[in-house]
Design a protein that fits this description.
The chain contains 4 helices and no strands. It has 128 residues and is mainly alpha-helical.
Length: 128
Amino acid sequence: MKRANVAAAAYVLLTFGSGLAVGALGHWLYDSKIVRASTNRSEEYRKRYIQDMQSRLQLTPEQTNTLTGILDSTRSLYRELHDKHRPEYQAIQQLQVAQIRRMLDDTQKAAYEKYLRERDARRKDSRP
């Protein structure tokens, strides 16, 4: 009888342990794949960055204003660079799409076109 009790306890512990492992894995997958309901991550990052700089460097209000100006001008330069090279990125993407279309049969092309429309809609929705 003692052997049966040990086996039963082992099965209970094994079941509990596997449930714990599956639950932890599921939570990790859910947490890593979840879409964050953030309207503008760059603004959140910017606020955290400024707060971090203020606390670490003990910035004065004047220095914080100067830092904000530096970040504004840097953002402007990044946007100009991105806008300048956007046509080049789009040309590369169009080349990729054309190459993929050439390798597909008619049924696959229809599904691919649907995929492209859905992707474009998601991109429009995610832009600030």
